[in-house]
Amino acid sequence: MGSFIDWMEAAGAMSGLVGAWLIASKCRYSHWAFVVYLCSNACWLMFALAQHHFWMVIQMVGFGASSVFGIWNYWVLPRRAITYPEGD
Predict the structure, then answer these.
(1) pLDDT in tens, 15-69
(2) Per residue in 37-60, is it b (16+ CB within 10 Å) or e — as a string?
(3) Treating both helix axes as pointing N-terminal to C-terminal, what angle do 54-71 and 33-51 enclose, rounded to 10 degrees?
């Protein structure tokens, strides 16, 4: 396991597992899961592109979009609510 693609495959798998455990644990760090998932998606996307796995590329683009949506919901919206309270 020495090539860049091998490292992307391993990093994608491990970060995906970490993200799943973060979500499942419902702990104070669970909001980091979507950031970790986005890293996983990026690694898997590079792997899929290098290996010419078209449908995996499509899947990772979709998962990447859901990760960005999760980041929006867990990071951006709560901070906007603090900065711009409703009714102002």
Answers:
(1) 999 999 999 999 999 999 999 999 999 999 999 999 999 999 999 999 999 999 9
(2) bbbbbbbbbbbbeeeeeeeebeeb
(3) 160
Residue 26 φ/ψ region, left for φ over 0, alpha for ψ in the -120 to 50 degree band, beta for the rest: left
Single-letter code of the amino acid located at 56: M
Q: Report the predicted TM-score, pTM, of the whole model to 2 decimal places.
A: 0.84
Tokens of 28: 């104070």
Amino acid at 22: L
Q: Which residue has the tokens 């973060």?
A: 22
For residue 36, the model assigns a pLDDT of 97
CA distances from 87 to 28, 54, 84 (A): 29, 47, 9
Residue with tokens 């859901």: 66
